[in-house]
Amino acid sequence: MIEENKKECGIVSWQSLTSGALIKDLKRIKENKTGAWRSSRPVFYKEKCINCYRCWMFCPDSAIKIENDKVVGIDYDYCKGCGICAQECPKKVQAIVMVKEEK
Amino acid sequence: MSQKGSSNCDGKGGEMILAKTGNEALAFAMKQIEPDVVAAYPITPSTEIVQIFSSYVADGLVGTEFVAVESEHSAMSACIAAAASGARAMTATSSQGLALMHEMLFIASGLRLPIVLCVVNRSLSSPLNIHCDHTDSLASRDSGWIQIFCEDAQEAYDSLICAVKIAESIFLPVMVTIDGFIISHCLQKIDVLTDEEVKSFIGEYRPNYNLLDVDNPITLGPACLPDSFFEHKRAQAEGMYQALAVIEKVFKEYEKRFARPLSIIEEYQTADAEVGILCMGSTAGTAKVAVDNLRKKGHKVGLFKLRIFRPIAVKYLQRALKNIKILGILERMEGLSAFGGPLFNEVRSVLYDEAKRPIILSYVYGLGGREITPEEIEEVFLELISLKNKRRKSIEKFRYINVR
Asked: What are phi and psi of B399, to 5 degrees?
């Protein structure tokens, strides 16, 4: 059990920790896909999008993907399914719609 | 008011005696320390510290960023943010203010941020009272902060300067406490250092990390679940285990440079004493008068003034109390535990493993600013003398001074 614990979080012992639970190596954060616990998912309709960027501005997880100044979709590795993007998408546009997440 | 960049002192290292209240002394020390950020919310009796300091800021005597916040919770939050950004941060509070900070106290220490906080001791409501007892500081005892109790304005001035160095040497926050009104509002002669002496003693703050360093991004305050939380707490505890040695080193260096002795436990007339009283804060001054009066009558009594409440000075207490037959612990807090307050319980616990240990009684006194006199302390000493040869189990442990 202890060995498994050590392996899973990479902690050898308390002596090896950074002071104040500080994370200096941000590589691990990029490796951690934090979108796993979504209960609903945003679906993006490219043809309806007017590229107003409201979803991009409001997304708390920087999970709206933009390429060549155009919204191209959702980064599901990090999207938590909060629904703010769908809420902020103008009512007349509705380019993002929340649906139930299914595995 | 003096010229910008220098204090009332001439800066040539000459002796400088000023008349200051406890609050003024702490504000003056804070000015000489010149922290990068002070974030504060006023509360009696600590208000003057930040009020006076804010006028130093307004007059351009310090370059500190002063943040007037909307609560003590915000004051500590702002100090945490400032310290995490590599700034030296300080604040002051009392009583309900410290209680409102409670949540943030744990965060400051858990993030290992060397924030320094002046606490002017005051009771906690209810009933509402603005006067001194130690309930506020002692209720924060498990928050991971070093706690330094001061007898008077001079000790508070010296301790605050040392506190900065202690905090930054071991990356633990430190609170320096004085007794509300008794010390905070009473005028006293204090011997101050020059700005240059203070600045050279504390040195430049070298933060462990800096949130604003965009070239080296970090994550601070991450969620640590059952797989790592425990290890972080163990590592934090190690800081406290090592803190006493750091405190002693800083006190010794201060004494060496400025000939101002600071101790972890101050002993008064204890060399041949077999009856002792242990207390913290301003009452030590009153107790010294009681000791002198009884010594004149031939009683072998002595006083132990505990200066550091966190971390617990285990070895120092064991060494200091080894020849005492009976000890009265004057506690300015009712622990409401039906077994005495924290000072009584912790000192008693420290002596548990000793082969020779004194009978220890708890004397709760001075709640809500109730005055304590030398005569009352003399009565406690005489009571202890009359009990010193009794069987320890037969003695009523929990006693109260001057309660009607």
From this structure: -125, 160
CATH (domain of B42): 3.40.50.970
- pLDDT tens digits, B252-308: 999 999 999 999 999 999 999 999 999 999 999 999 999 999 999 999 999 999 999
How many domains does chain B contain in total?
2
Test B231 with A29 for CB contact under 8 angstroms: no
Tell me the ipTM for this assembly. 0.77
What lies within 8 Å, CB to CB, of B220 at 6+ separation is: A20, A21, A22, A23, B84, B111, B209, B211
Is residue B114 within 8 A of residue B35, CB to CB? The reply is: no
Q: How far is B174 from chain A (nearest CA, A)?
A: 16
Say yes or no for a CB contact (<8 Å) between B219 and A15.
no
Measured between CB atoms, does A20 come within 8 Å of chain B? yes
pLDDT, one tens digit per residue, over B360-385 is 999 999 999 999 999 999 999 999 99
Structural domain boundaries, residue B190 = 16-258
CATH number of the domain to which A74 belongs: 3.30.70.20
Tokens representing A79?
Answer: 């999207």
- Nearest-Cα distance to chain B for A78, in Å, is 16
